[in-house]
Amino acid sequence: MIAIQRGTERPNDVVIIQGHIDSRVTDVMNFTSDAPGANDDGSGTAAVIEAARVLSKRKFPGTIVYAALSGEEQGLLGGKILAQYAKAQGWNVVTVFNNDIIGNSCSSDGFCDDKHVRVLSEGPRSQGQAELAAQTHSLGGENDAPSRNISRYLDSLADRLNIGLDVTQIWRTDRFSRGGDHIPFLEMGYPAARISVAVENYDWQHQDLRTENGKAYGDTIDHMDFPYLEKVTKLNVAALASIASAPPPPEAKVEGGVSTDTLVTWAPVSGAEGYVIRLRRTDSSQWETVPAWDAPVSPSGQPSKSMNCLYPVTAGKKRVHAVGELSCRMSGSTIGSSECLPSAKTASKAPSPPQSPAARSSLTSLPRRNR
Predict the structure, then answer these.
(1) Is the Cβ–Cβ distance between 71 and 23 less than 8 Å?
(2) Class for domain 2-245, per CATH?
(3) Could you give the angle at which helices 146-161 and 226-245 cross, rounded to 10 degrees?
(4) How far apart are CA 223 and CA 21, in angstroms?
(5) Of 244, 278, 283, 312, whose Cβ has the fewest other Cβ atoms within 10 Å?
């Protein structure tokens, strides 16, 4: 089941929230036994429906797709169908939030954690690896894939929301030997991440309903932690609203070979009031925002103030001077996967939503300058 909330300005820029409505017991081919699937994945489906209830009352520049998929347990069939449909429609899939098992907070060994949620994201892009291998080998960027930046964004967003939930970034495509409906999107080059509970309970997952030695098995509703599910759903809703509202970035170019600094240039974006560049040390996990201001360039080409970067907005140029070993990226509705690139900020009477870190599949990897 798919619902499409068309964007008012950029309907081809699409952000997707999805869960799967099918469930299973111990034998994946057993279609006769009761398989409640409360957490796997009634929880993710509930988050999709609640997001649609809340966000459908508003309008957004970009499109939001709400998806309750079938056939996940039989081979990610629903994810494959939706990913193929997105490609056939020519959608620019900005990001996919795959919510799969997000509703319980206690594991099989009795450990409970209702303060964290895992976001799992791929490292090197699974699509286009052969084309990117030479650049990655030479310039790095293994940790800068678009999906990885989605993970970073959700982590920072959870901190700002202050809802008692922190993101644990798991830098793998999925759990060991497991999979989910985000993977077909990754295989087509779309950025996607899996959102899942901090700790899993394998007694309540993919199990026949039964009681053995006093222990209950099966994915039933009495094992759900609804306050925890509420927090994870809030994170999803806030991220969807932010990314669907984020302005598109400019096309940017980077120069920095045999130079003590890195020059970033871009064409102006209509309606933009400013730009944001973020960077990080190559051994740092999170991005930092470079201070920005309007300042003229001195005759020597250096900032007229004693600061480490320059933002002549009207010229569409920014010079980032060497500050250790840095990588940079673009925020906004698209990201250069391993670049120091700008994003546009538009003027608005209302407070601007947090900048989205999602990525266009067409922006794979430009040469990164280690500055």
Answers:
(1) no
(2) alpha beta
(3) 120
(4) 18
(5) 283
